[in-house]
Amino acid sequence: MKQRYEIWVLGGDLRQVKLAQLLQEEGYLVRVYGMELRPKAETLPDREEWNRIEEADCVLLPLPAEGAGGMLYAPLSQHRVKASCIVERMRPGQLLCGGKLSEELRDRAQRRDVRVEDYLTREEFAVKNAVPTAEGAIQIAMEEMGCTLCGTRAMVIGYGRIGKVLAHRLQGLGANVTVTARRCSDLAWIEAFGYHGIRTEQIGHEIQNYPLVFNTVPMQVLNQDVLASLPPECLVLDLAGGSGGTDFAAAERLGIKAIWARGLPGKVAPTTAGEILHQTIHHMLQEVEV
Amino acid sequence: MKQRYEIWVLGGDLRQVKLAQLLQEEGYLVRVYGMELRPKAETLPDREEWNRIEEADCVLLPLPAEGAGGMLYAPLSQHRVKASCIVERMRPGQLLCGGKLSEELRDRAQRRDVRVEDYLTREEFAVKNAVPTAEGAIQIAMEEMGCTLCGTRAMVIGYGRIGKVLAHRLQGLGANVTVTARRCSDLAWIEAFGYHGIRTEQIGHEIQNYPLVFNTVPMQVLNQDVLASLPPECLVLDLAGGSGGTDFAAAERLGIKAIWARGLPGKVAPTTAGEILHQTIHHMLQEVEV
Amino acid sequence: MKQRYEIWVLGGDLRQVKLAQLLQEEGYLVRVYGMELRPKAETLPDREEWNRIEEADCVLLPLPAEGAGGMLYAPLSQHRVKASCIVERMRPGQLLCGGKLSEELRDRAQRRDVRVEDYLTREEFAVKNAVPTAEGAIQIAMEEMGCTLCGTRAMVIGYGRIGKVLAHRLQGLGANVTVTARRCSDLAWIEAFGYHGIRTEQIGHEIQNYPLVFNTVPMQVLNQDVLASLPPECLVLDLAGGSGGTDFAAAERLGIKAIWARGLPGKVAPTTAGEILHQTIHHMLQEVEV
Amino acid sequence: MKQRYEIWVLGGDLRQVKLAQLLQEEGYLVRVYGMELRPKAETLPDREEWNRIEEADCVLLPLPAEGAGGMLYAPLSQHRVKASCIVERMRPGQLLCGGKLSEELRDRAQRRDVRVEDYLTREEFAVKNAVPTAEGAIQIAMEEMGCTLCGTRAMVIGYGRIGKVLAHRLQGLGANVTVTARRCSDLAWIEAFGYHGIRTEQIGHEIQNYPLVFNTVPMQVLNQDVLASLPPECLVLDLAGGSGGTDFAAAERLGIKAIWARGLPGKVAPTTAGEILHQTIHHMLQEVEV
Fold first, then answer.
1. Do D174 and A132 touch (CB under 8 A)?
2. Rounded Cα distance, B175 and C172, in Å
3. What is the ipTM of this complex?
4. The pTM is what?
């Protein structure tokens, strides 16, 4: 008789390693596959093969689940396997979790009566990841700038999740923080928290005074015209999803240092990012009433 | 030919006086009625009668528009007039703004082709008012408590507008802040801003350690059972709308000091509250393309 | 044989009551005299007479120790006794603590080989009291102003203990904080903490933009000339010791609201003020190796 | 006739370059020597030779003034010259400023009636440099740790200049901050600013719970015994002057990552560090009544 809930953790980077450790510490029966090149060989039980995956109660794919060509994203492994092959071996009633699951994967899973959950659809996952993203952005700004954040005029474009968390920390470090938003109610929030607020439509008129600009809006706000107004020596950090909000080609032509910082949580704080995955999966498992 | 946009400001308390002054300074032609008992007789042009109201382009009723018996809320006046009578004298195309407009008033206005706007439906109005509400709550806490907020364990129930703004300020004053929420994503926000977070469902288990409790949730969270767990000498401040979130009768039986603090912006910061009205009306006028 | 260290707590206001309670809870044998009119009759053992004071190991006079005419400061009592009479009954080796002890009292004590400690000479006592002083100042500002502190330009004159603690809290509440100081190094501190800094000598040139001014410097900084530059509706709160730093007569002539806020800890936060006394006495007793 | 005050800026790193630029922008006649390898050839007038130094009104040596063997510290130059030779060419009445001037240099200068000022003796210089030091420490912590500062328990040993500025910023980033101090009054300050405070003598008992430790005390506080109590994966950053406060050999034996971070302002924020030099020299020049 099966005693313990069994979770298979497949592929991924250091976040996925941390996740597997935390689940094991919590008492789950954990099997890992596709992370055999991880720095220290913790006591995680590596599986040579993933094909007895039907033994699992829950299968955790990484974030993102797939790399190029639909292969399981597994930078810490020398094995290569198609993500879809894994799903094809799953049995009805199993739970499949992963990040940025493609429509194809979701379809296959549903056809096999496998329940599917994507981390990215969880609001709390996005909120929690705003913290390592903001810290990562601050780290890069510190590394790239010759002056301190204290006393620097910093503009944060957009007051969504990352904008809120980033503005708060920049202010805590003594920067002079301006935040842009489009909605009146967001501008009201910005003032209630003590930042200077301007309408996003107006940034072209103000941006020339800002040696540090963070973009969080996934639309091309920092187009050639706006970039041309920036002071020389300005640093632009684009944290927006999708295809970013900066015309990087124009920035290069204009000699402006613009950095597209993507996937910061996994890069700058893999331990925290793994804990966030773990907390999210914890909530998911509670909700499916394990 | 009519040169300037004419605004009539009727009734209300000190906020409405401030509002009339700000509109006049901005260049509007302002007429006031029903605030003749205001502290200083500023240069606002009082109208003896309200019945030439058809001359106005815009009519501003106070917040709330009506007092008992449907009378215009006008604590700074000895005149008494039914709010509905005013509306009945308006002409098609005029703009009527007010706060907490009753369904009857709205209906009458619409039947006369008068455009109607209620401040309370504006998100930015609610956000901006969270600031004087939070400051007012802090002022009352300081007045009522024999100890400093610095070092005090304070619980904020609910992480909506008031909860967000209040928790931020309590932390700035050195209190030890716990915030409760029901949604996972709100708890993620609470942690991202450095507060201790607990689920609202759990407050019964934790509340015995909090000498200061602010409620912002308009549901009876602080029922008899929860109140019975509070430490003696505890102070409860209920800031929730509707009928509040505290069983005040039970609090009295139990000897717990519970204060129902309503309408704080107008009471503790009438100047700011008037400015907020003004900013909101400014946005409204922009949107109706004056 | 004497088992427990015996402390007599004489006179004083609610702080002294709180102090006596805390010492009793800590296990000391406590006797109180001269506070029989306190709100609730806690289980403190009142003494009818103070003249068996030689039984005490330590005698705690209040802050201040003496009121008018050298009488023990005892607003919660109907007994009247000269502070010097009490000292004259003490015996060699006893410890006498009090606040603002007059030279005469100190001399008498020393002549009798009584060890004397004054709270006011303890740096940590002054630092700790800066917190209730700052909170009290904020409470008064909130009560007196019609606008919120959030968004208000506030000037803090002086960056000593109260200036440091007050500026920090005003910033936490969203005020726009300027601090003045005379030394270059203090101005460096002011900038490091994110405030706007100006030289105290320059306040005459800047003060016209500040509707809220806190003085913490015990020299007449706010003289008639400077006061005349203040905007109407300005609020001045003087928190300085000695004879304050404001020409109150000139303020009245000029129609400026200036409040001399003295002894705030005992007034706005007697419980905290009592705890601070207790912590300070605790350190004193440790140092005399009880 | 001499029209403009002439300043010679010799040697140094990027800070010294920034300093020369700022002085030139301010209107001084600036000559530079010993920084010809600087990144961009700004319009600073390089001198081929330093031996017409008697033309200067003021000579600015870098921080530190001397490198190994008493040579002018000049990492951006291929010239090598003894600092003492420069002083020997100076004439009576000139002003010599520099950082960490050796006793020998001071003596020589005084014998020639050259006025001497050392940046390091200026309190405001030390306070201002605490900001880039604290930011640099935070940058290193972010780079080295796999988790976010938000939510991390961080201990700051010592509440001097760096301790004060660092604790403030760590709290602004959401870390859980404990500060240690030896004096009661410093512990009172620590609590007034909302940190957890413990006595430096007690760190051995508490440190096992801190994955991040910053030392600012120039005495061996982090000796072998204390280091042995640290949790594995702990990061120690030593920011103390002198020979630091960490037994680095013991740390290595114990497998604890301990980093001795020295001279952070010049490394992480040379522009700001140059501005600080400039502000300090500005004050010095004002005081010698140029």
1. no
2. 11
3. 0.91
4. 0.92
